Records
---
Amino acid sequence: MIRTIGWGSRGRGLPLEPLELERRDPGPRDVVIDILFCGICHTDIHQVHDDWDSTEYPVVPGHEIVGRVRATGGGTGRFAVGDLVGVGCMVGSCGRCRSCEEGLEQYCRTGPILTCNGRDPDTGRTTMGGYSGAIVVDEAFVLSLPDGLAPAAAAPLLCAGVTVHSPLRHHGVGSGSRVGIIGVGGLGHLGIRIASAMGAHTVAFTTTPAKARDALALGASRAVVTTEEGALDDLADGFDLLLSTIGTPHDINPFLPLLRRDGSYVLLGSLEPTPPVVGALLAMPRRSITASLIGGIAETQETLDFCAEHGITADVETIRVQDVGTAFERTVAKDVRYRFVIDMSSLTEGR
Amino acid sequence: MIRTIGWGSRGRGLPLEPLELERRDPGPRDVVIDILFCGICHTDIHQVHDDWDSTEYPVVPGHEIVGRVRATGGGTGRFAVGDLVGVGCMVGSCGRCRSCEEGLEQYCRTGPILTCNGRDPDTGRTTMGGYSGAIVVDEAFVLSLPDGLAPAAAAPLLCAGVTVHSPLRHHGVGSGSRVGIIGVGGLGHLGIRIASAMGAHTVAFTTTPAKARDALALGASRAVVTTEEGALDDLADGFDLLLSTIGTPHDINPFLPLLRRDGSYVLLGSLEPTPPVVGALLAMPRRSITASLIGGIAETQETLDFCAEHGITADVETIRVQDVGTAFERTVAKDVRYRFVIDMSSLTEGR
């Protein structure tokens, strides 16, 4: 067993604290990774708070992991000691269903093994995430970090980045596409950067005037403050794709008229029931509502490679792990521009 | 002016009765059609009752029209006196927007000119539909009735038929596709016939056991009575496409798990707000809700040609126009297998 420290919660309502963790000894296909940085995703907060009634305690969150290879089990030789690597939301999947065969492991029929609070079918144990010193991962679920990506600022690409990149690719966005990014936060700020880099005319939608200004600096052609009177009036039939990064249920109807025929409104942030959707806004003219869940491993590698090529990383505020409680509070209060990343070298401070 | 008789309503709550109608003298591109048969669509009832707060009285419904060419204005010579022809839901559109240019006039940016209760931009008058003796229509909106289609039973193809055929084509249904048809009525019974003829494995969903038996006779591989306990349990991830022909708002969530990844649930019958949709059922795995509105003129001709090739017509009950009130009541009560069609030769009875 490989021993390390994780920061997690022992039970509902309890704060995060240091916990002793054991990682499995590496099998032939495994990579042992010393974690350098781990991003804070809103999902981490939902898991710690057990908002979805699915948390197994103790829970150690974290699925935006950047680290350095400490050892490998041999495997295919894809990774060598010292390599900078990433791990995202998944550490395994069935490998046999149609989605797995097509590189869309996030839609694995039996469900992928999540990096945090997932169930490892071999051991029956709950997976512990990246708020920790080290992790052992099947090399098929390890990403190469391309040269030129700053490790801390690249961490959020492993969840937030691929979550926006995957639907942009799936819906064929490119030069001449007209894309709206609804919500300017962890996902949204990367959505603006990536969609713009793909050549799309990109419009940001936010309720916060200061974020509208940020959106223009991030590459948006236009930024709309949706709370202003008549803000959407001149935008009818103007978009091929709208990505909603809003993390809570919201009324989709005001945005549907903005879609052209065959355009899609893609839910990325909210899995709960949406308020009622007016059928006529879908029918006239033929629009869709769909959703998208992170991305497959191959897609995640493409996200990293695309972002390296275009010089895209997240805007991050790096913190010590001891400050994770405050970071959670500020994330909930939307007081972050635009993602917290934990510097894991702080784990051993004062020890 | 061409004078004829229409059966319509003079005001909200008033029964249908014979009204004097004037049709325009044919211009060079017009076709004068003596109407032989007109189907009764549920939309006719909504218009007569002003359920959508959009009815201009007097209203003469009817948009599933089969007739014989009495005269032409010359035009392109596509039609000759004596030809059997059809007219569906539209008699005009702007002709210049992207949808019109792509043959999807139903999505015309300024709205197509509807056959009934539409606004004719040239005259400013409200259009009067097919519950009448004759109609004058721009030849671009006149369909050829292929040989071999019985005129009365072909009339419902002009709305109900193309409404199901268009999304089946748009979503690429063919041999090996797995299609669900939800609701077995005017649209649904044609959906089963057309999807089966396209080579799809077709499953019908109904709340009525007797209609489940009909569905099998219509060509469904399987028919599911959705009110039976556990009816949907073994169907998860089984469908590429679900066409909902249900005419009222309904809970979509029980059906979403039946869709495979990238499958679509298509609303055909209901334009009202749907009950809330659970985002997680869209995200896992990547499913869509969309809608579809009738079909373009070229699509409608394809529907007629496809149905002629495969020997498909609607199951109809032919009535006299004097019995339209009873037919409306029976349509609302779902007491029709599966479409009423008015024999317009009854118009002059007793006159």
Note: The longest helix of chain B spans residues 297-310.
---
Amino acid sequence: MLRATANVAGRYLGRAAMADGLQQNQGVPVVSCRRQELALSAPMMPPHLPSGLPQPPHDIRTNVADALRGFFRDRASLVEPVGTEFRSAVTHLEDFVLRGGKRVRPTFAWVGWLGAGGDVDAPGADNVLSACASLELIQACALIHDDIIDNSRTRRGFPTIHVEFARQHRDQGWGGDPESFGEAAGILIGDLALAWADDMFHGSGIGTEAHQRALPVWAAMRTEVLGGQLLDIVVESSGDGSHGSALKINRFKTAAYTVERPLHLGAAIAGADDALIAAYRTFGADIGIAFQLRDDLLGVFGDPATTGKPSGDDLRAGKRTALLAYALETADANQPDVAATLRSAVGTELSEADVDSLRSLIISLGAVERVEKQIADLTERALNALDASSARPGTKDALHAMALAVTRRTY
Amino acid sequence: MLRATANVAGRYLGRAAMADGLQQNQGVPVVSCRRQELALSAPMMPPHLPSGLPQPPHDIRTNVADALRGFFRDRASLVEPVGTEFRSAVTHLEDFVLRGGKRVRPTFAWVGWLGAGGDVDAPGADNVLSACASLELIQACALIHDDIIDNSRTRRGFPTIHVEFARQHRDQGWGGDPESFGEAAGILIGDLALAWADDMFHGSGIGTEAHQRALPVWAAMRTEVLGGQLLDIVVESSGDGSHGSALKINRFKTAAYTVERPLHLGAAIAGADDALIAAYRTFGADIGIAFQLRDDLLGVFGDPATTGKPSGDDLRAGKRTALLAYALETADANQPDVAATLRSAVGTELSEADVDSLRSLIISLGAVERVEKQIADLTERALNALDASSARPGTKDALHAMALAVTRRTY
């Protein structure tokens, strides 16, 4: 145990990174190897699906962007009559949506469809792609509204929507409070993204039977992510530090929304049988939770140069992660004074040195090791469910690669 | 002109009301009679459809409430796994939706369907009712988010959603800012209402062809109302006082969303021909704008006892209405000092005496008369379009009554 902790500390406090001349607080987590597959170097989310898988004409990210661009183009006839103010807001939404993101959800939905027998050469494939791409508009709403809720100033290197509109208000010298105006615009533009996600999905032309099969999945996904977000804000305010709550948030806010339901959606569109859907859902829930646990580690130990977020951001924000819950549970049981230190520190303005101390504390309490073990166990269970399923072999390869990409990323 | 203005002043500053022992500033507007139909005493939005029209088993408002209640009941299996915090939020949303409102939009949609040949005795009638009832969930989102944007404290005699959640936060002694928590909860609960509106509509089971016909109408309606709201916040901040902007906001934020598109939606579900749809849309756009113009008058001259809003609320809020635009245009042309007085006063903390003075000013500038004439002209044009249409006779009666109800109400 002690030796293991020391090893973890060595990795997480940047021994390897320091050898490369980096600062200690920029240490990049290196994944422990629990099975052969996990020892592979972590791939990025593949822009091209692996070669074993049927390829769409271009790569999936380009196709998703094209589908979104086409949707926005088709909306012009609805937007134009309302005038320049609305057109400007829609342009901001389009820029936000097309600016990027990893297209994780459309990719999982598309791969889920392919794995359940979807045929990229069939005439309806473009419609399925459009249905998958609509997930990015839900995500746009989630991000725009989250940025208001979290009072975030930047997103993907640009001002967040509400900050951008507050700036416009200020630049124009308009009446009233710029921040309130920015928030109002952000709320409405997020609403528009959510309404348009539905329009794009239900208007994708995937066919009546596929649409009927997909409806309950679409409903569950949006309900679950909003449920998870509501639970998240309650837990953050109430200070509920249990790992049960943290994992429940991961389950609904992240796993169901990011992996499980997108895969399920693709499978439902393809008309997959119950066994494959069950395997996808197990895979998706487990990988999704592992994805969030990795995110939690990066929020405390990630390198700002690769995560794009300030170092130790989650500690300053007081985010109630499973990582923190594990640390607090161990401390409560064995070192109540350490628990008190931890509780009083998180969620406050912390110096770099404070963040470093808290990192050491979290490691010494075994929380990092526990999270890494959980990520590895979840990934193993997910891959076993996938391997035993009837998903096409090429899809299994793709999902293997994606599972490792999202659970072992450094950004 | 002078005599007309004096007459208007007599009505609007409560000469009749004073004869009933009411205070001058509580004067209730009395509608000038431009055609025989308008001389009828203004009916309330009919809880029962007029007897000439096929009656659903109960009245439309009861049916809408039942459909919504059933939808919330069916959602329990999705909500339950996320836990008590989410269930509590959903209960607040359900209470909000079932607490009331006039069900204007579902009623217009339902009547539009009936008038285009919808058969209340056919097996699919319940599905159509469910599709119509889903409009109340869009409205729930619009109100919950609007209340955040406008920082409104009460709605229908209860605390607004964001105020209620701020109170819970305060009562529990949670960490962080109660107001921010309340806003976050309000944003997410509004999002949930919007997502569920789509689920309820698309899952209503109205049949594939009806659904395909209704899709573009559903899309247009939600886009237009959000476009109108965005235009509204820009115009309010920029101080754009033109009546063109005010009427454009009325057109998209109110008319399209409240009357035109709901009627169009019902007609599309019923498979109406283009001519009837065009007539419905003319009727809906005109009555919808007239509805908003009446609202603008009530916002300045309404009796708090019947409107439920403080007297002269729109003047204090600085709402950029067509009424105010007309007053400013006339003043700009003839009495620049009066225009300056008006501009500097609206949108500030006004005493009752200030509000009374502004009312007199607005009347003396002919703005009330102009708005009343516009309401009457729009109503006349709307009723002419309706009369000339192929809508069922019973529906025409119902829409006549509803047109008068919404353009001549005192609340």
Note: The longest strand of chain B covers residues 154-155.
---
Amino acid sequence: MADPMRIADLPTPSLILDRRVLDANLTRMRDRAAGLGVTLRPHLKTAKSDRVARLAHAGESGPITVSTLAEAAYFLDRGFADMTYAVGVTPDKLPALAALTARGASLGLITDDPEAARAIGVRGAELGVVFPVHVEVDSGSGRGGLAPDDPALVEIGRIVDGAPGASLRGVLTHAGMSYQCDGPAAIRAVAERERADAVAAAEALRAAGLPCPVVSVGSTPTATFAERLDGVTEMRPGVYMFMDLFQAGIGVCGEDDIAVSVVASVVGHKPAANRLLIDAGALALSQDSSLAGYGRIAAAGDLQVASVHQEHGFVEGASPLPFDRYPVGARVRVLPNHACMTAAMYDRYYVVDGGDEVVDEWDRCRGW
Amino acid sequence: MADPMRIADLPTPSLILDRRVLDANLTRMRDRAAGLGVTLRPHLKTAKSDRVARLAHAGESGPITVSTLAEAAYFLDRGFADMTYAVGVTPDKLPALAALTARGASLGLITDDPEAARAIGVRGAELGVVFPVHVEVDSGSGRGGLAPDDPALVEIGRIVDGAPGASLRGVLTHAGMSYQCDGPAAIRAVAERERADAVAAAEALRAAGLPCPVVSVGSTPTATFAERLDGVTEMRPGVYMFMDLFQAGIGVCGEDDIAVSVVASVVGHKPAANRLLIDAGALALSQDSSLAGYGRIAAAGDLQVASVHQEHGFVEGASPLPFDRYPVGARVRVLPNHACMTAAMYDRYYVVDGGDEVVDEWDRCRGW
């Protein structure tokens, strides 16, 4: 029998996913959703993996959220039919979405634009499908969506409800501003705003005689700390699966809850600058700069990737650095600032199960 | 006959490469190298495309530089045998490099570490190959490399020259600090420092009785503005092929010289925030933050992508924004801050030739 493959045998840089940490994160969020009485429709924009999606639903298929047409096609091919495509749709994407629908997907769309809503209804009919549509609500993030009291909300509801190629599924919001919070109390307040705005938007549709079966909210911080979700029917967190230094920084998790890391090799010493060079740089770690630096070295005190070139990372943070512990060729594990960005640089996960043995290899979807 | 495909027909986001601009950039750098009397060994870390590499050599194969093992394998498979792998090598990568060498690659390595040099010599012999090795010189960038007067330089030269599995090819440096320059005069000074340090390192090896046939320098700014390269044998610029807003910002090119852009769709209007939302965000544009914002909208005055989420970009920059000109579904072209980072997010180029007709599709190498 061949020796088992270990992290030390992998090419560097590679992306490591610890299934044990992943399972704990997935279980915790499933329990949250059940406790709050809502459906969990996890956002797969972070993991982009059917293996992870299935584990998120305790081994079954289930409702999911996607951010690209490539993800929609990938997950449909792997048995996930109930999807919400949670990026404002443009008319040119409708033929591809209709083709996926014709192949069996129930593909919910979102829009905050009356013209786009009209196009969905007309093109849906021309393409021979009925697109389920959510009106996108802005609950304070300032990204997509309409304020719950914006008259355009009901206008879009009426356009969709009256169109032969569309059906009104409900309202959807994303409390992106939860990422600017500092700690649970602030996140709880944002979660309540997200809930209240989504429910108010749903009530506005219903008051106009329109159906609104789905009231969808979601972000990992608000899903983690919401105290109640009365009136909400589903939530769509995503990064909770992997967690990252950003989530740890705002109090959503601890560093031990981070399931993904990049294994890199030391490729040089710069004692005069008190730096180690590693072969994970801007491409291997991403350039996410939501935190100082580009990732922390796991189990190494304050060592972090202080700056990056395309294929080089500069490790700094102790004076002097323990160069003897990290000769050229030594390996380090880098915890990501933002798991969505770092994971996106890779085409596969090397899966471990709490240790350093590579027990599996899972593919990922990329592109658009 | 089918209608020709146009940029307006592409899925968004997509990466566009304008062959006409590319050709002009490639010709200019070939002429520079010829005028300076050095070999052009272009760095393919930006383009990662054999089609571009061949055009860089006026339609032929030729010497190139690569930054990953994946690039080395990709280019070898496509007829490029003479490569320099310009990232400090670690011992664990030697078996894969030896396998490429056994398949016909002449794969030059770099190191600035005596222990790594010893490992190359020993492992090369064990693996049945002779690795050509450059000693990496630090000409001021503070990344990899030794100062030209560092005794370790000659020590490494001796280790390599005396090893059965390695041969001393020369010295190599990269004036990364040229990216911090403001304008041609400052870049010229950096180019002279790069040249002088590389030549001094070569002379140090020769004074110790060691061979040093190759003296390699390179960065797009220094290659563009160097006044003389006496004593240098080759240069390795990379981003010159595509150029970008960063190069334009330091005076290396104009915005009209930028050959790559991302085509994106308007997916929403936020008049209260005076913002357009587009479907190109952190993944489609990269998060390179070497400049303010994440890219400029081509032919649109001061409009730029001011901030990004994973799949959304927020366009700002005029007050008020011309919303009527950009309805939901309208398309924009985003010029990249840093072409290497933006191009790395895609698996292909949609090639145009000065217009909006898509005349070809070229693949790209990804990963490590």
Note: The longest helix of chain A spans residues 184-207.
---
Amino acid sequence: MTTPTFGDSLTALRNTAPLIHCITNYVAMNSTANLLLVTGASPAMLHATQEVSEFTALADALSVNIGTLSSPWAEAMLLAARTAHEHDTPWVLDPVAVGATRYRQTVCADLLALKPSVIRGNASEILALNGLAHQGKGVDATASTDDAITAAMALAERQQCIVAMTGERDRVTNGKAGFTINGGHSLMPRVTTLGCGLSALVAAFVAANPDEPMNASSAAVACFAAAGKRAGENAQGPGSFYVAFLDALYQLTPDELSHFAQREVSDAL
Amino acid sequence: MTTPTFGDSLTALRNTAPLIHCITNYVAMNSTANLLLVTGASPAMLHATQEVSEFTALADALSVNIGTLSSPWAEAMLLAARTAHEHDTPWVLDPVAVGATRYRQTVCADLLALKPSVIRGNASEILALNGLAHQGKGVDATASTDDAITAAMALAERQQCIVAMTGERDRVTNGKAGFTINGGHSLMPRVTTLGCGLSALVAAFVAANPDEPMNASSAAVACFAAAGKRAGENAQGPGSFYVAFLDALYQLTPDELSHFAQREVSDAL
Amino acid sequence: MTTPTFGDSLTALRNTAPLIHCITNYVAMNSTANLLLVTGASPAMLHATQEVSEFTALADALSVNIGTLSSPWAEAMLLAARTAHEHDTPWVLDPVAVGATRYRQTVCADLLALKPSVIRGNASEILALNGLAHQGKGVDATASTDDAITAAMALAERQQCIVAMTGERDRVTNGKAGFTINGGHSLMPRVTTLGCGLSALVAAFVAANPDEPMNASSAAVACFAAAGKRAGENAQGPGSFYVAFLDALYQLTPDELSHFAQREVSDAL
């Protein structure tokens, strides 16, 4: 589990083009599909209760994002996550704004019981999710980054999963060890739903590299960090940044990713 | 209430980064989120009846757009608008295609009763909404621009709100006075849902400048007009226009907005 | 029915700016609206059962895409398709992933009974739809292109409609004759929902050219092929490709389309 293998993870993704079943929010659907396609995975968005389990059973991985949650969608998420759990299909939970309302906390508690392979969120969401799983508490927006690392590790250990926490510096952990990933660009928070798309890309990397989920999740995060850095070089603002980001993910080679990882990724959390 | 203060309104928006609860149509969700983010506001899209009131109560403003209406969404819109009304939270109504079907007229009548702070629409929609509130009539697509100004003023006066009516020349009125705003670009109608995004940006400006809703609404409209003019200078078509428009909103400074307003905004309706 | 008339079909589209009622998937909504707008048609997305028939009756054509299907949407699609059928309004069916689940097969069987004017899909979808209509079978992903042509012609003949089948080489047939259309670009499959948007553009072309649906459908397909070829010339990846593609559709002249058709379109299937 060393950073130079990130390039191999990307090669595996491109060679297998895994089919990723995405149940995500309305805002993110188009950009998530594009982010998967440009990197080399195959997206599919569907959620009807009549077909969702049937399709999850065919997919190589599942990505669930609760952004624009409602009752029929929560039902679909639970059906799909249960199918993934029963088939040992990797699945990723993106707990958007879980600390904001009681409804989100309830749905996330039900989803956590179905054992996501990876949880991908920002520091506030990881703190909220850890408090939820632990004590039923909500988000603590004023908590420090150190607190978020501790929460991420606690959550990963308790859930026996990977936690990929993104922000100015990204952290990926299995509860015991992990990676810190630098890079990216200050314009990234000005483009909507990049994080949602990253959750789906994490699912794609884990599908293509099922034996090393922490490494695979970190490679996905590093792809975004590397492409973000490249895209920021000539961007005039968030509009041209997003276009360049899609191009940069498409152009990113396994060698470039491994070299980026050697410079910008450390195994200290 | 003079146009040079438009720059101050933009400064206030960027300093406060207001949280805007958007209940909008599926077509507009991604671009609305991006248009808010690039200008300096913080978007949130959610609509489940289990959480919508809880979230509106936290938000700095609400933006309701009926584009891809259906029963569960209409219920969410009414719950959110009622919460906004009860909390004195500013809220904007975007009555997409209200003249097209009876269902839209019924839902809009219910929403109007909850006293939106601002109504943002095109001339046909303002005419239809005025006819609806007044006489239960539909849209008159053949009406002249002068008729639309009269309807906009009548609607604003009766509803005791601001009406922001956009088209080749934009008009913002409180029923007694107002602004006419030039600028923009002929490619803008070739990019989908820019108007929907403007409604959310109006909500953000009013949230950041709660004491002067007409000025704030006009400043939001002028942002679009200024950024549209800039974006059109080098655009090759609607695709490159949209990218440049996002960049231009991001780059627009308060000084540039005030200078634009001095040239392109008049207080004659 | 000769390829040089494709330019005339585009002229008719731009002169009439037909109103296209789109009931499509969440992923495709924004790009479909933009693809229609840049080419010269007028999109409208709405699906509430309270208004869908009322609106279809006003529209110049209907486009139905089952991508992110669910019960309320299936109900809306059937209501709209029935209205289109009763009013002799042209309507297009895009049977996304019809072979993937039994639910899609059931809904598509119901839609086929309402006689779409055009079916637009990829080879797998056309094979699945033909098997479905014929024998109730699913998709055969391993079938050859020749098999897909035979299935397309059989489906067109049995349904008495046009089948527009897209891929590396596009084919449009009425069951007896048709066109093969080259062009496009290898980046097109890396951009999500271009095919979904094409289905709506086919509806727009048929609305503007109601007397020659096969020619009109082919002209729409040729627009995409011509604009894709142009957009690919300077694209750095899928992000810049999509931007250039929207610009190229906007800039495409009827003369350019006819000249493209002379080089890249043949009447051999």
Note: Chain B touches chain A at residues 26, 29-30, 33-34, 37-38, 43-51, 54-55, 58, 72, 242-251 (CB under 8 Å).
